[in-house]
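Fill in residues.
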C-alpha cells in the first residue's frame, strides 16, 4: 500500500468546436494545497508489483492503422500500470517502436504501412498515410523482458505457437514481425515469454482477430468450425470455438500457475465499431435524370431475371425480387455482388449474382474511397452504381451471422473460464456497444463511436484512440477494484486525445 496525495483539479476546456472533436488536451489549474485530502491507495487482495499484459493489437496500443510510440504510451496496459503504481512501486516496460511513423522494416524493406492521419491541407475527409521512412527494423532484436506482450495480428492460438517470433518466418507469413523483434528466442512463444517473467498480475484480451480478419475481408475466409487443426487455417478464417476455448484455458492455466490474479476481457461485436458502421448501405446520391438513365440501362437485366423465373426452375420469384435493380431520386443502395445468390452466368453471362445492398449489409470502411470511382476510362462504368462491388467490400447478413455465432461462443468460454479461475471479468463488448449506441460521458466529455469525430476510435475504424483506451482502462479498473477490493482511481479521459492531429 502506498500513501498518495490526491490533487483535485478544476479543468478549463476551451470550447472551440475543433478542440472537443479532435481531443485537444485541456488546460488544468490546481486547487490550493490546503484543500488536498489524503488517500491510501491499496491493491487489495491483488498484487500489482509485476503486471504483464498479454494480447494482440488492442493490448499493444495499436491506433490509426499502425503501432507507434505515442500510441504505445497510451495503451490500456500502460495506463493501468501507471494507476497501479499509486498502490505499489513497480516498473512497466514496453517494446517501443523506434518512431511515431509506425511502419516496420525487414532488412531495410518496408513491410507494414505508416500510420494514418487527417490532412486538413488536402481538404479530403479521408485519412492519408503519413509520409516518411520508418526506422523500426525488426532484425534489430530489442532486449526485454517486456511487461506489454501485446502482439498486433495475433490470434488466440498464435500465443501458444513456438516459433511465432522467428524472423526467418516473417516473409512467408509463418511468424509475426512485431513479436519477432522482441521474442526471447526464435523458438519461443508469446505465452512462454510472458510467464517467464513470473507475473503477479496480468491482463488477457485475445480473440478479436479470430473473427475480425474474416469480417474486414468481407467474408473472404472460411468458417473453420469443426476443424480442430489450426495449422490448416487461412489468415482470414474463423477459428473453431472449441479450439478457442481449449487455447484460452491453456493460456489461463499458464498465467495463473504461480497464483497470479488478473483481468480478462471479452470480444466486442463488429457492429459496434466504425469500420462497419460508417459507410451506409444507401451511399449513392442520384438526381432524377441519372436515376431514370440507370433504370433504362438495367431494364434488360431485370427482364432477364423475370424470364428465368417464368420459364425455368432455376430462380424463385422471391430471389428474383432481391436481385432486381432500381434507382430513385435521392439516396440509393449500393450495387454489390453476393456469393450467397445463385450464379446465373451459365444461363446468361450478363446475369451475375448481383443485387443492391440492404440495411442488413455492412459496407467496410475502406469502401468509402472506392465507391463512385470509374472503372478504367469509361465514365458510364461506376463502382457501386453501374458496376457491382466485389464481395470483399461488404459483409452480408449471412457472413455476419457466422462471425456473431463464433463471437458469442468465444465470449461464453471467456466468462466461464474467468469465473473458474476467480479472475476479474471486463465486458468490453458492452462498453463498445454503449459507445456506438448512446456514447459514454466521463469527466464531462462525451465520447462516441462516430468515425473521426466521436473521440473514442482512431482513424482505422477498428482500434480505439488514446481517449478510447482511457475509457477501456477505467472500465477495467472498476472490475479490478470490485473483484480484488482495491481502490485504484480512474484516469481523467480529458487528458487523452480523441484524435491525433498529425
Amino acid at each position: 500500500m502506498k500513501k498518495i496525495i490526491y490533487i483535485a483539479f478544476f479543468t478549463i476546456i476551451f470550447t472551440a468546436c475543433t478542440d472537443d472533436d479532435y481531443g485537444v488536451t485541456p488546460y488544468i489549474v490546481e486547487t490550493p494545497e490546503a484543500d488536498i485530502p489524503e488517500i491510501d491507495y491499496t491493491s487489495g487482495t491483488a498484487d500489482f508489483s509485476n503486471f504483464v499484459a498479454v494480447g494482440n493489437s488492442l493490448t499493444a496500443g495499436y491506433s490509426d492503422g499502425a503501432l507507434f510510440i505515442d500510441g504505445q504510451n497510451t495503451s490500456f496496459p500502460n495506463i493501468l500500470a501507471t494507476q497501479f503504481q499509486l498502490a505499489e512501486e513497480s516498473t512497466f516496460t514496453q517494446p517501443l517502436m523506434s518512431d511515431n511513423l509506425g511502419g516496420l522494416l525487414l532488412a531495410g524493406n518496408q513491410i507494414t504501412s505508416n500510420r494514418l492521419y487527417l490532412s486538413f491541407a488536402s481538404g479530403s475527409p479521408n485519412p492519408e498515410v503519413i509520409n516518411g521512412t520508418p526506422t523500426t527494423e525488426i532484425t534489430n532484436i530489442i532486449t526485454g523482458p517486456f511487461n506489454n506482450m501485446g502482439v498486433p495480428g495475433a490470434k488466440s492460438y498464435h500465443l501458444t505457437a513456438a516459433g511465432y517470433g522467428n524472423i526467418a518466418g516473417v516473409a512467408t507469413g509463418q511468424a509475426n514481425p512485431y513479436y519477432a523483434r522482441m521474442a526471447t528466442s526464435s523458438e519461443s512463444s508469446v505465452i512462454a515469454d510472458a510467464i517467464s517473467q513470473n507475473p503477479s498480475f496480468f491482463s488477457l484480451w485475445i480473440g478479436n482477430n479470430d473473427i475480425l480478419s474474416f469480417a474486414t475481408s468481407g467474408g473472404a475466409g472460411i468458417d473453420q468450425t469443426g476443424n480442430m487443426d489450426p495449422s490448416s487455417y487461412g489468415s482470414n478464417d474463423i477459428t473453431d470455438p472449441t479450439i478457442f476455448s481449449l487455447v484460452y484455458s491453456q493460456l489461463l492455466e499458464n498465467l495463473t500457475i504461480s497464483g497470479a490474479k488478473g483481468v480478462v476481457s471479452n470480444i466486442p461485436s463488429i457492429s459496434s465499431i466504425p469500420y462497419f458502421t460508417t459507410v451506409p448501405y444507401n451511399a449513392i446520391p442520384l438526381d432524377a435524370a441519372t436515376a431514370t438513365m440507370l433504370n433504362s440501362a438495367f431494364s434488360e437485366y431485370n427482364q432477364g431475371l423475370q424470364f428465368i423465373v417464368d420459364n425455368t426452375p432455376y430462380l424463385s420469384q422471391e430471389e428474383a425480387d432481391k436481385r432486381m435493380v432500381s434507382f430513385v431520386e435521392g439516396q440509393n443502395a449500393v450495387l454489390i455482388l453476393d456469393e450467397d445468390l445463385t450464379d446465373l452466368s451459365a444461363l446468361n453471362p450478363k446475369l451475375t449474382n448481383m443485387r443492391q445492398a440492404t440495411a442488413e449489409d455492412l459496407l467496410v470502411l475502406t469502401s468509402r474511397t472506392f465507391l463512385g470511382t470509374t472503372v478504367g476510362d469509361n465514365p458510364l462504368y461506376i463502382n457501386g452504381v453501374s458496376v457491382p462491388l466485389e464481395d470483399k467490400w461488404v459483409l452480408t447478413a449471412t457472413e455476419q451471422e457466422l462471425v456473431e455465432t463464433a463471437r458469442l461462443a468465444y465470449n461464453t468460454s471467456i466468462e466461464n473460464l474467468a469465473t473458474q479461475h476467480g479472475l476479474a471479468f471486463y465486458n468490453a463488448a458492452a462498453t463498445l456497444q454503449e459507445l456506438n449506441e448512446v456514447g459514454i460521458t466521463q469527466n464531462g466529455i462525451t465520447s462516441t463511436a462516430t468515425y473521426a469525430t466521436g473521440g473514442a476510435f482512431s482513424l482505422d475504424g477498428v482500434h480505439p484512440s488514446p481517449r478510447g483506451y482511457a475509457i477501456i482502462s477505467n472500465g477495467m479498473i472498476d472490475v479490478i477494484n470490485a473483484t480484488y477490493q482495491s481502490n485504484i482511481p480512474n484516469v481523467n479521459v480529458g487528458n487523452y486525445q480523441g484524435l491525433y492531429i498529425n
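The CA atoms of residues 469 and 490 lie 12 Å apart.
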